[in-house]
Amino acid sequence: MTEKNLVHELLTKLEEHISGHSFGDSPAELYDPITYIMGLGGKRIRPLLSLLAYGMYGKNPTEIFSQAAALEVFHNFTLMHDDIMDQAPLRRGKPTVHEKWNANIAILSGDVMLVRAYDLLLPTPTALLHEVIRVFNKTAAEVCEGQQLDMNFEGYETVAEEDYIHMIRLKTAVLLGLALQLGALLAGASKEDVQRIYDFGVNIGVGFQLQDDLLDVYADQAKFGKQVGGDIISNKKTFLLLKALELAKGKEKEELQHWLGLSQFDKGEKVAAVKGIYEQLGIRSLTEKKMQSYFEKGFQQLEALQIKNQTYYAALLGVTQELMHREK
Amino acid sequence: MTEKNLVHELLTKLEEHISGHSFGDSPAELYDPITYIMGLGGKRIRPLLSLLAYGMYGKNPTEIFSQAAALEVFHNFTLMHDDIMDQAPLRRGKPTVHEKWNANIAILSGDVMLVRAYDLLLPTPTALLHEVIRVFNKTAAEVCEGQQLDMNFEGYETVAEEDYIHMIRLKTAVLLGLALQLGALLAGASKEDVQRIYDFGVNIGVGFQLQDDLLDVYADQAKFGKQVGGDIISNKKTFLLLKALELAKGKEKEELQHWLGLSQFDKGEKVAAVKGIYEQLGIRSLTEKKMQSYFEKGFQQLEALQIKNQTYYAALLGVTQELMHREK
After folding, report:
1. What's this model's pTM, rounded to 2 decimal places?
2. Cα–Cα distance measured from residue B112 to residue A137, given in angstroms and rounded to the nearest whole number
3. What is the CATH number of domain A3-216+291-324?
4. DSSP reduced 3-state for A22
5. Is the distance from CB of B72 to CB of B45 less than 8 angstroms?
6. What is the ipTM of this complex?
């Protein structure tokens, strides 16, 4: 089977597994929002990474659909709660749970999703369960820490580069690391391999977030799902803006602060003006270099892996490369 | 050692264990609220029940402080999130977390508390971990279901007795059952004993909630911590009100509906009037009988237990009796 077919087949079966899972019936107010958010789709990248890592070590991924689904349920729990905190009206183009129902229901449904994630980890062999729950807990707490840091940063004038990287590492990258770690761990990979594949996931995860920051400014509007320049319009503290705040001097600094301070403005004008400042400061290439450095650091981890199934390894590389070259 | 001394000593050591636990440092916004709510006190009844059940089967309770603390952390997580949903300004006489910080922080700190509860379960022997997490998950989901039902009931005209009992069983009683179940399970009690002690906990838990409903109306104000009649003032759907709604006919029904419908009223007058209706309908004695029936059903479960340490058993009975005769 080619790698592409392998990935397609895994995703199809995983989707069947997820949509076939009953989250509960009663009370409907508690369980319907879970079925709803899990049904909104998404790339299922986290469970897919678990399945590929498991297969890479010579195991049959259908054995760990439950644990892989646990990561997707956890991820969607964080989305449900983050959307309340961010007062987001839409998620994947559909009303968020707190909009469609209300905030209380979104809090409580999210809580029960987190509990369900632990349930889905339970089909783990006894000898591995302690370690599986330990690493899951560690990552889950870190994701909460990342979300808190992200909320804290909103109130700051600016944020140092290393603090921003620390935040995105916690908020989004460690969960990709966990996904791969979980697959390797369940497959019985060596301690060293489990660590290396985790580090691979975390590093490419940081790279993906930097790529998100770049795409928001430089994506092709025809291909991009959201409004290009949205982060500039909302003064979102992306790597690009933070780097510009760090490097701008004199007139550029004044102009940047001017645009950040305006409460009323023409969106197109602001995007063009801030992009102009980024251009003068070389922000795009700086960010691309930083992103590349994380991708490279990630791929270095793969060199020493003791892989048993090359097709799965090729599939993992393929999926990663595709994400690295995505245009939306 | 007498039972009273035993309980006192266990509570002292447990409190040291809880206050000595570091929930985390950074970001402070995430972890300070956890230290805060855990420091507000409370009777620590759930972890105490675990310790006593464990001791009853001949084991040394200091071995399971971590798992016992997990239940207290879980309980306080539910309080933190429930307080947001109920828009409660105070918890144990102090500002609630969403008031002292904000709702977003209360959501996220609660989330990380739930994760931490699972961490605290991890020192469980490998052979028991799967079952411990399974029963914990089951109860945790049920507690969420109970809270959702409670919120649903607010919007209903009335609620049938069995639906109310079902709700309080889920919202509060099953966690007392779990506390005892966890202690027995960890101590290696038989499957039958684990089930019996769980059923004991659930049944006395339902009884305690009915007692709460009674105390709110009939407590001695000098001893009661809150305003006596508070549930009447706020039209809270307690067992007493639901029973009165079921039994009142004609003029009594009209009078009850009149008081429930008033948006402005003298609090003392409303409490006196509704108490008068309860009096005419014999609500107090009906509720006391129902409460007693749950207490009795609970105590029946204890008869067949294979107890190894009678001092711990006496202590468990003592703690239960004290709760059954509390005046606040």
Report:
1. 0.97
2. 9
3. 1.10.600.10
4. coil
5. no
6. 0.97
